[in-house]
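Postdoc handover notes: sequence design on the structure in folder B. Input tokens:
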């Protein structure tokens, strides 16, 4: 790893972490495309690396900040986390069984859908606020 790669990795981490903490967006939505396009990772490498990055210490620190303000529903979170663990296992198994081109297409479609929904909901909120 050279100095330029280290700088890119630090920037990816900072941006992903800040967006994750700021708007709750999954770091993978930033990390995966950044690793693919800026560092030439394969889709599988980017996804695996992103999952590694989103490990417990990072999550714990972010959750602590929200919990201090009383903004964490622990009961619901535990139910979602339980299903998330199973879903993550099954999703990774499926991703490794289908052609990489399909994984990229599905990932891109999900990112596009989420982006459009967020943009439209933000626009609607602004429109209602201005009225």
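Designed sequence:
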């Amino acid at each position: 790893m050279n100095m330029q790669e280290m700088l890119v990795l630090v920037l990816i981490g900072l941006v992903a972490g800040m967006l994750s903490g700021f708007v709750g967006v999954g770091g993978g939505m930033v990390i995966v495309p950044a690793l693919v396009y800026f560092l030439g990772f394969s889709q599988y490498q980017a996804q695996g690396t992103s999952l590694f990055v989103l490990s417990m210490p990072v999550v714990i620190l972010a959750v602590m900040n929200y919990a201090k303000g009383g903004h964490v529903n622990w009961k619901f979170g535990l139910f979602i986390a339980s299903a998330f663990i199973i879903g993550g296992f099954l999703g990774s198994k499926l991703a490794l069984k289908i052609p990489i081109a399909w994984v990229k297409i599905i990932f891109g479609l999900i990112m596009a859908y989420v982006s459009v929904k967020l943009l439209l909901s933000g626009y609607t909120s602004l429109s209602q606020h201005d009225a």
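Context for whoever picks this up: Residues 1-54 form one domain. Don't rerun without checking with the PI first.
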